[in-house]
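pinned: reference chain
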Amino acid sequence: MTQVNSSNSNAKKWIIGGVILALILGLAAYRWTKGQQQEDVLTIGISPPYADLLQSVADELKPQGINVKLVEFSDWHAPNVAVQNGDIDANFFQQSVYLRNVIRETNFDLHSFAPGTGSHVGLYSKKYKSLDELPHNARVVIPNDPVNLARALILLNRAKLIELKNINNELSTVKDIKNNPKQLQFIEVEGPQTAHALNEADLIFGYPHYLKLAKAADPHDALFLDPIDKKYAILFVTRKDYEDKNQKLATFVKAFQNSEKVKAILDQDFGTGMWFEGWK
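pinned: its structure tokens
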């Protein structure tokens, strides 16, 4: 009787041991499969205006076995933190001047993987039909981040509304204004919010895509537009040590730069003639 009980006990131990081993192996296999799936997905952080644009490329590449996940960010800080931390592969929302300033301020290990497209920026008003009509003490809305604030001031300088100490200073602030003959009053807001200020302000510094998103104005109706400057093209940004496994990101960039659908969406979202190719 004792021998039978001992045999049953050993059998139970073997069964339990087998179940535990199966669970461990199953968990390991699940984690490996999950890891492989994550490696097979190219994750790109974007700001909302680029959602349809990059999704069109993602849809184009899916039949080729390249799976792309787009992660939208509502601000201009988090996408770089996510790339730096390795949470996403790349981001697409910033130009080279902005990226240089981020690296200078944060010491992040980021760099440009490839250029995308850029857009004109302009000065817009619903109250006045020319810059000459702008009154003294007019309220001018500009972005509050250092890079785009400077870009706005440089544009105002080119429009002969102000004079900067150094028009080539990519980080000029209102303190660097040498001459302000109309005593313009500057109101600083988050970059995307300049479009929403168009009805109240006398003049705004506006981006075509945000003007369209806000349904505030036709981007072609600018009182003054900047010239094409390739340093303001939006970049695909990664960590410097990023490994582009199976050339997924390189394939994505190539598709982006050669897609007719991308060009059609840019014409629709930014306006015909309001964007340029940063790689040419």
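why pinned: The chain is about 40% helix and 20% strand. The helical segments are 2-40, 51-61, 78-84, 96-106, 146-158, 208-213, 248-258, 260-269.
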